[in-house]
Amino acid sequence: MALRECIFHFKFIDGPETKMLRALIFLPDDRQPSIKDFIAAFAQLGYNVQLIDERDLIFAPTNSKETYKLDITKIEMKGGDELPQHDGELRSIIEHLRGGKW
Fold it and tell me: Out of 60, 67, 76, 97, which could bridge 7 as a Cys pair, Cβ 3.0 to 4.6 Å?
């Protein structure tokens, strides 16, 4: 089974400090990224987070002493061996994550 790349761009926000970052997830061709995939990717980067805003895909630390937020701003799906490359639309990914309910 071929894998697709899912590159997601996110903002690291902590008070006045904001950084634009990105991360990569590899997924089977037949699957879209899930909230668990994003949480696992953030954990690999050292951010232990939980989802706090499902509509806008905003995550906050599980440790209440930390004050940053992570805001996913763009999701790009790259095709596997059999699929042409394309950019995913954030809204369609969110609709998929929410079961088609916006």
Answer: 76
